[in-house]
């Protein structure tokens, strides 16, 4: 498995994977992978910048995990900054692995890769939000092991689930 920056070539597969794993996000503006991924590839373009700004994002970089044999995108991850804490924090986002390829260490490699990337810059924190929906349970184990500890929780409106905020001091 190789981790590579998201490119126009891998964009359709990356969007399809994320939309499949987080289906409720594609109907939102704030969490729409098609918008975030596409705009991240063209951040100097004013219309891309404007789309990212509408998501409160000031900088966004995404990576894909590619299976060496099939050449397919089997995972994604990303680091982005929000306007409100861009001086001190990166946010980890869109971390997921194709359900057919789970349990082989790909998710761990993607998160470790992103942590290393975040450490190579001068931010103080790596933050993320996740939730206690059952299909994100393994992610909690993965994050906890890496010291991405819970710093806040809030009820998701109209849902029985909670949004969970995590943070790692870099
Ligand atoms: C979370 C996710 C990315 C993990 O991907 P993966 O490739 O299966 O994970 P790995 O095989 O690298 O395993 C990660 C860790 O969890 C542990 N783990 C994996 N599957 C597990 C399971 N079913 N039960 C308990 N622990 C498990 C592994 O032992 C591993 O431990 P390590 O960190 O010490 O190496 C994947 O399950 C996924 O896409 N989930 C849905 C999307 C999601 O929740 N994303 C995060 C949203 S914030």
UniProtKB/TrEMBL annotation:
GO terms for molecular function: acyltransferase activity. InterPro entries: Acyl_CoA_acyltransferase (IPR016181), GNAT_dom (IPR000182), NAT_camello-type (IPR050769). Residues 1-170 form the N-acetyltransferase domain. Its EC number is 2.3.-.-. Keywords: Acyltransferase, Transferase. It comes from the Bacteria. This is GNAT family N-acetyltransferase. It comes from Floridaenema fluviatile BLCC-F154.
């Amino acid at each position: 498995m190789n981790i590579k920056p998201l490119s126009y070539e891998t964009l359709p597969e990356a969007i399809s994977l994320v939309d499949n794993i987080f289906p409720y996000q594609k109907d939102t503006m704030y969490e729409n992978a098609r918008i975030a991924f596409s705009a991240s590839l063209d951040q100097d373009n004013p219309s891309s910048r404007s789309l990212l700004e509408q998501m409160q994002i000031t900088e966004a970089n995404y990576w894909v995990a590619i299976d060496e044999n099939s050449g397919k995108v089997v995972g994604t991850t990303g680091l982005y900054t929000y306007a409100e804490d861009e001086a001190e924090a990166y946010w980890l986002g869109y971390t997921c692995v194709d359900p057919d390829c789970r349990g082989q260490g790909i998710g761990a490699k993607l998160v470790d890769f992103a942590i290393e990337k975040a450490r190579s810059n001068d931010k103080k924190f790596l933050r993320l939000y996740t939730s206690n929906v059952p299909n994100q349970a393994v992610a909690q184990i993965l994050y906890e092991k890496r010291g991405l500890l819970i710093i806040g929780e809030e009820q998701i409106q109209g849902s029985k689930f909670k949004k969970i905020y995590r943070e790692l001091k870099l």
